[in-house]
Automatic annotation (TrEMBL):
The active site is at residue 2. It comes from Methanobrevibacter thaueri. The keyword Isomerase applies. Its EC number is 5.3.2.6. Residues 2-61 form the 4-oxalocrotonate tautomerase-like domain. This is 2-hydroxymuconate tautomerase. It comes from the Archaea. SUPFAM superfamilies: Tautomerase/MIF. NCBIfam families: DmpI, taut. GO terms for molecular function: isomerase activity. The lineage of its organism: Archaea, Methanobacteriati, Methanobacteriota, Methanomada group, Methanobacteria. Coiled coil: none annotated.
Amino acid sequence: MPVITIAGNDGISIEKKREMVKKVSQTVAEAYDLPIEAITVLVQAYQKESIGVAGELLSDRE
């Protein structure tokens, strides 16, 4: 059973997360020739204060 992890900042709505999980699940299920029920997607959402880019916190770059 494939497990897909998507990690990013907590900047998208629950509706967009639903859409993303559905599309990713469908794509991976097709690639593996599996039913969509066999796919697990984990969405890890981090606050901008917990993400570092180029030596700076993402919250400090804005």
